[in-house]
Specification:
By secondary structure, the protein is mostly beta strands. Helices cover about 0% and strands about 40% of the residues. This is Right handed beta helix domain-containing protein.
């Protein structure tokens, strides 16, 4: 995928990405596809031109405490049978 900062694809692919800043991408911050997975923890995903995260084609990532914000499109976009577990960072100050 042109413009994605991180592209994870193919079955059995399972990177561990922690404490990263993925920002200001031409397209998508993280693109996970084709039965890939991975563990993404304590990352900041921000200011991307499309979604912060795209998940498709039966990919199944695990996100924990990632802060996905200020993109020009959606934060997380799952399509074409994309899966995933997303335990995200929430700043409760903005809710009260």
């Amino acid at each position: 995928m042109v413009g994605a900062a991180v592209c994870v694809k193919k079955a059995m692919t399972c990177p561990k990405i922690k404490h990263c800043l993925i920002a200001d991408c031409e397209n998508v911050g993280i693109f996970i596809t084709d039965n890939a997975s991975g563990h993404y923890e304590d990352c900041e995903i921000a200011r991307n031109n499309l979604a912060g995260v795209w998940v498709k084609n039966q990919a199944n990532p695990f996100f924990r405490r990632c802060h996905i914000h200020h993109g020009r499109d959606v934060g997380i976009f799952t399509f074409e049978y994309g899966l995933g577990l997303f335990l995200l960072f929430l700043n409760w100050e903005h809710f009260f």
